[in-house]
Amino acid sequence: MSHTKIRKCLFPAAGYGTRFLPATKAIPKEMLPVLTKPLLQYGVEEAISAGLDTMAIVTGRGKRAIEDHFDISYELEHQIKGTSKEHYLTEIRAVITKCTFSYTRQVEMKGLGHAILSGQTLIGDEPFAVILADDLCDNDEGPTVLNQMVKLYEKHRCSIVAIEEVPIEETHKYGVIKAHEIEKNLFEIEDMVEKPDPKDAPSNLAIIGRYILTPDIFEILEQTLPGKNGEIQITDALRTQAQKGKVLGFKFAGRRFDCGSVDGFVEATNYFYAK
Questions:
Q1: CA–CA distance, 13 with 112 (Å, rounded to integer)
Q2: Is the pTM of this model over 0.85?
Q3: Which whole number is the average pLDDT over 10-30?
Q4: What superfamily does domain 8-274 belong to in CATH?
């Protein structure tokens, strides 16, 4: 494998965001703002904080606002140049100059595994990160979640998923792992189940929207049959990877807000406002 350093981050952004209708009828859910910044921009900034400079975004129909956001708006720049409002654009300008953006479309919605597979043309044959923008993460104390994971990857060189403890009655919303702890907050995964009923859940350790994946995952995804809801699940592909080799689960330092739900979105807004 030529590249051992992680440079690219994949953002699956093709979903419909039905839980936020009618707001998401014409606006991608990834562009919904927490305070003044869209969710996707928080994710891109997290990737930059981890030393990544190539953002690969898997979009779908009606998502052009994403491409426009990560581009220069000459008219807007011209209008506010030299005014007191100019500083509002400094943050997004910094993001645009620090990294490259490329886009591809997921033509059919066939699950997260399929979305990641759709991004193969943008990633190529190298390890990469995946951020699901509606899992908004923040770590007051130190490095971002992805930054923590990239450091771990440099040591272990295998796929890594971010995990957190969830109430057992909520396991049906997540991929859940069966694993043993190999060092503090780091688990070697033996098995994983997509959205199990609480009574069938192997633990209360749930996978959240941060992954580091080795490139062999694409080949596994190509051979992965549709699972729950007829979708190709990344959980199933990772399970294969865990059984063949090694996949780690990492209990990260920081907080996660599930901005895919209205409750989590409001919670995140209040949290960042208080900050």
A1: 10
A2: yes
A3: 91
A4: Spore Coat Polysaccharide Biosynthesis Protein SpsA; Chain A (3.90.550.10)
